[in-house]
Amino acid sequence: MRPSALTIPAATLVLLCTVACRRDVPEEPSPGTHTTPYSLDLPANFPAPIIPASNPLTQEGIALGRRLYYDTLLSQNGPFQGFACASCHHQPVSFTTPTSGTNVLAHVNLAWSTNFLWNGKVCGTLEDVMRFEVEEFFQVDIAGLNTHPDYPLLFQQAFGADHITTDHVVKALAQWFRRMVSSNSRLDRHLRGEIILTPEEMNGAMTFLSEVGDCFHCHPLPLMTDNGFHNIGLAGSFTGFDVGRYAITGAPMDMGAFKTPTLRNIALTAPYMHDGRFQTLEEVVEFYNSGVQHSASLDPLMTKPGPSLTLGLTPQEKANLVSFLNTLTDETFLTDPALGSPF
Ligand code: HEC
Ligand code: HEC
User: Probe ligand 1: pick from 107, 128, 241, 243, max atoms within 8 Å of CB?
Assistant: First the structure.
């Protein structure tokens, strides 16, 4: 059996090298004098996370990012006054909100993402999307952080910062997001040989991971997302936010295409899809089974296994597929005190 958790040596090397090199480049924002390197504890079947050399993980940086995430101070001068990031991104439901409208995307395993937001408005690293969140979405009052009784010292410790800048806030938040790892669902434990899924769950896995359901092409193990964009056929024509990635690229093939969300903790993150149109996983499965609508930009994967758009799953196969999706719930992640509010 595989060991349950291994440190990724490559990431550690990058980290050590960065800390060592940084001493020679004082003009760039550098880790503070009191930093303790932090390595993510990842199962062997996980790929290496994306960690830029300019922002190595430290305990101080992660703790600071966590505090910022839960602090309403961040929104005090912007359009979301009184909100913290965590006001819409709640840990017990995988950092989402169960409301209608534009669906709140989960904060889980984004250390592996290069495309962010439903239409991929921001591509790049977590630093890039945090810059968007800090500058455009929350319009964070950096001056307010500099005059705060606690933050100047915390930024000094994490980044050696004498004066807090947007860049420091971005880096702290990005480090915190890399710490939000889910790797202990029942499926993860099954893959590590620690438990065995039930026959129903195993049958659901067969449907999910074979051409029968054909889910795995876009929701591959272990992250349950291909990090890409697809038009899965929710509609036959598109207007407004529903044009998806087309709004960003203007490419006809991107019409109606959205980011593939992870399916981790999917049992808890209803409603589903970018617009929250489905309330239950049964409805989602029935959509994939019989509701896919044709359009010029429909992803070719949606027409398999035959020429028709219908999967032809039996009621038992559909129920098993839902049972399998339920194995993706990670109680460790949802209840980890280290991911909760520090206040
Ligand atoms: C008012 C509710 C709300 C607040 C407050 C909020 N978010 Fe979000 N967040 C959303 C919604 C809705 C989406 C999906 C929007 C979209 O994709 O167009 C989202 C998406 C994201 C994503 C993209 C995830 C992905 O998989 O691509 C990130 C990252 C993110 N939020 C970070 C933050 C951070 C950091 C803060 C605090 C600075 C924050 N959010 C505050 C509602 C909120
Ligand atoms: C062609 C790629 C593709 C295939 C194949 C695919 N999905 Fe998806 N899946 C997506 C995309 C993209 C979305 C988001 C679509 C949107 O909101 O417009 C999504 C959304 C979902 C959601 C809702 C996620 C959320 O957070 O709201 C679930 C559940 C889901 N898929 C399960 C499945 C299952 C089960 C299958 C197999 C029957 C499957 N998917 C096949 C790409 C795919």
Answer: 107
And the tokens for 50? 């994306």
Structure tokens at 61: 């940086």
Q: Kindly state if the Cβ of 155 falls inside 6 Å of ligand 2.
A: no
pLDDT one digit per residue (tens) for the chain, 343 residues: 333 333 333 333 333 333 333 333 333 445 666 799 999 999 999 999 999 999 999 999 999 999 999 999 999 989 999 999 999 999 999 999 998 889 999 999 999 999 999 999 999 999 999 999 999 999 999 999 999 999 999 999 999 999 999 999 999 999 999 999 999 999 999 999 999 999 999 999 999 999 999 999 999 999 999 999 999 999 999 999 999 999 999 999 999 999 999 999 999 999 999 999 999 999 999 999 999 999 999 999 997 555 567 899 999 999 999 999 999 999 999 999 999 999 9
- Ligand closest to Cα of 90 equals 1
Q: How far apart are CA 9 and CA 172, in angstroms?
A: 23
For residue 258 and ligand 2, the question of a CB distance below 6 A is answered with: yes
What spacing in Å lies between the alpha carbon of 107 and ligand 1's midpoint?
A: 8
> Is any atom of ligand 2 closer than 6 Å to the C-beta of 217?
yes
For residue 102, what are the CA distances in angstroms to 83, 202, 240, 267, 287?
17, 33, 12, 18, 19
By the 8 A CB rule, do 267 and 329 touch? yes
